[in-house]
Amino acid sequence: MSLTRTSVPWYGVLMEQMFAARDYSAPHLYRRVRRRRGRSTLIAALLAGAGTVVLAGVAYGGGSAPQHRVTVQAGQTLWGIADAHYSGSDVEQRVADIETANHLRTAAISPGEILILPGL
């Protein structure tokens, strides 16, 4: 069986599209139109990401509060520093806060070490 225009309804339309004569003297009429949707989507995504980073920084304490620091003197302990700088507070909680802020694993400190005092 051969394919003819009568046996396949879309055959004629397909052949006309495949073998249609083009006017090659005017190629600008057949140029594909480039869409800039990809570029604008990328720019929008970058702006959204930058906005998220800025808002996250503000939300998670990215403010400009100055950090108070203290240099450890000979004979000082974390408990003594916490008691001296956080009067009227729970000293045990403040020692834990100092350890966390300075990434200390234990309460052992050495003279000359600079400690960040959070929440002052």
Note down, in words, how this protein is organized:
The chain is mostly helical. The protein has a domain at 68-117: LysM domain (Membrane-bound Lytic Murein Transglycosylase D, Chain A). It contains 4 helices and 2 strands. A two-stranded antiparallel ribbon has the order 1-2. Helix 3 crosses helix 4. The longest helix has 23 residues, at 37-59. The N and C termini lie far apart (91 Å). The relative contact order is 0.10.
CATH topology of the domain at 68-117: Membrane-bound Lytic Murein Transglycosylase D, Chain A
How is the largest sheet built, in terms of strand order?
1-2
CATH class category label of the domain at 68-117:
Alpha Beta
Q: Unreliable runs, pLDDT <50, ≥5 residues?
A: none
Please identify the structural class as seen in this structure.
Answer: mainly alpha
Number of helices: 4
How widely separated are the two ends? 91 Å
CATH superfamily of the domain at 68-117, by name, is: LysM domain
Radius of gyration: 36 Å
Strand content: 5-15%
Biggest sheet statistics: 2 strands, antiparallel
Helix content: 40-55%
The CATH architecture of the domain at 68-117 would be: Roll
What would the principal axes of the Cα set say about the shape?
Answer: rod-shaped
Overall mean pLDDT: 77
Please give the number of β-strands. 2
Order of helices and strands: HHEHHE
